[in-house]
Request: fold
Amino acid sequence: MRLLLVEDEERLADALSHILKKHGYETDVSYNGEDGLDNALSGIYDVIILDRMLPGMSGMEIIKEIRKEGIGTPVIFLTAIDGISERVKGLDSGADDYLAKPFSTEELLARIRALLRRKDKDVQTGSDMVVGNIRYKPGLLTVFCENREIKLTFKEAQLFEFLLLNKDNTLSKDRLFDKVWGFNTDSDVTIVEIYIHHLRKKVSCENSGITIETIRGVGYRLKEVK
Ligand code: CA
Reply:
């Protein structure tokens, strides 16, 4: 699980990110609005925790911008401003939840868990995913194709799942790299090519009904073939 925290009060941001990491969430921090928007637009996060008052660009503007780009990552608004009308404005702008400062970290953690559960339901993570003649079982890291059982490594599975979830959409190498390998890694983006190569070989059973296309100069697209 990868979280993005956008918060300009550095001490609060660092303390929160420390707690989130301790609870097993990979957490990236942005200390201003522009940087927050940049990171949020990568589409690699499972939940975004977004402060409302930020230098450069407000939380409200950020959320409008990412929703406009079709990024549906659940957002929790953090703000010092409370009151019904502020809550309504926040939720209307596209946030999924709203937490007024000061808040307890326990409550924030509970709300993150709730959003992740909802998100899991939406994308059916954990349940089988069927595309073409392939059935993918995320929990088992296994692809079934015509009674053949193909085991994937953890990174292959993450990559395959992201391609499946974004079927018919071109994903850039950078986006795939950020999603699967993250920002704190010694690998570089060329590793994506190697993994796609493995993945194609592994899931290329006869009549798989899918193909992973190379979009020259951009990245990859998984689509069904008739
Ligand atoms: Ca602030």
The chain has eight helices and twelve strands. The first strand starts at residue 2 and ends at 6. The chain has two domains: 2-122, 129-224.
